Amino acid sequence: MNYQNHQIREKILIVDYGSQVTKLIARRVRELGAFSEIINPLRLERIKDIKIYKGIILSGGPSTVVNSPQKKIPKILINAKIPILGICYGLQLLAITFGGKVITKKTLREFGKAEVKKKNNSLLTRNFFDDNASSVWMSHQDAVSHIPRNFNLVGSTKNSKFTIIENKNKKYYGVQFHPEVTHTKKGKILLKNFIYLICNLKKKWRISSQKNVLINKIKNIVKNENKVICALSGGVDSSVTAILVHKAIKSKLKCIMVDTGLMRKNEFKKSFRLFKKKYKLNVSIIKASSLFLKKLKNVHDPEKKRKIIGQLFIKIFESEAKKIKNVKYLAQGTLYPDIIESKSVTGSITSKIKSHHNVGGLPKKMNLELIEPLKDFFKDEVRKLGKSLGVSDEILNKHPFPGPGLAIRIPGKITKEKIKIVQEADEIFINNLIDKNYYKKIWQAYAALLPVRTVGVMGDSRTFEYICLLRAVISDDGMTADSFFFPKKFLDDISNKIVNNVKGVNRVVYDITTKPPSTIELE
Fold first, then answer.
1. CB burial class (10 A; 0-12, 13-18, 19+) of residue 388?
2. Annotation says 180 is catalytic
């Protein structure tokens, strides 16, 4: 079910060629006050009037233009005579389509940060360069070796001469780097220039304006005597979903909190009281920790864990639905990053990263129909939407917490002992982040337990216990992330507190890996 407002007339069309960060392009466009829609190139012919769009952005992708069957930009886009911006793979398509050349060569590959130097002025790069250079993020193995006739060079890197090109008359532009990711220092400025200086859009879209659109859409879906049950965990996503659906259908909503035994220490009880007393939701708790632990016994594979948890959730919700008359729908707080890592929502060839329990982990056959009003949004957008709904900061400022819970923070075999260790260590870590005023500066933080025991010395005695891994990242959207920098004293103190207070841990490590190449969670 698509909940977006398609009545908006000022919008950008994003053609998805399979990049993992395609949705980030849409997010940046929306951040800048313009509406955007994503479409698979194979579905372009279904568009009745291409000229309702003011600009077109061609995404990056995992394919190589050199060997791709889609070697040219579809005619429907060219014939529309609308400004086009090609990103990475999109730049290469632009070059090939109009007679340029693209080659594959090891010396032309660029991954990670690069510096692009200004060669000529362009509307696209107004205020983009500092001292004729700008830091960008690259991810390509092919490169343009010759630009088409009537195209001009705007910027170059050491390995890629034609990093930024333009055809000013036709308003065609291409960049080899990814302006949509936070690692490109002034990427938003470049996108802003394309949207407003080149496409001449007007700022008309705000996330808070989607509140009434979503509420009305839910009302139209849940008709007559139909009822909805909502999977409520107490996190930002499920909480905003529950309150949004509640505003739409009131008493037709029943919220269910499933106690899997895999949540943070004491958090479930606090959340339950909050929803009951403050938000007046019809909510009940299903105690199922023994069932989840039984099903996860001796399961090591992370994909199996996610699928087992996803299927168990659905079985429980379907079982509860049978106890309530006329329940037809299950509402859950699925976000776009969940979907993009589990499968491609647009039908593109995006690589699957992992199955999220509420997407790829769902069973093929379900008795309930899904309502996922947040599936086109990112976490920060959901927080803004929640604010417009009157959701408290107590909920909105919570760090993301995975649906499978601690199951994916305990690589390998899961036991009651390990769950308790992680809960205790995590509580110490999070409480200290709050006490030292770090919590709000961090996107997500947690403690995990590695499936390795090491030798230690405590009180002159030999120990053989687990390694506790701590992770804290900063991010805008969860699609890319950097590790948070702690002073050495904080890490020393937190290590001592965990080792001294959590039985079963004799070593603490801090994960400094970025995303990519890693993911934020371990599994």
1. middle
2. yes
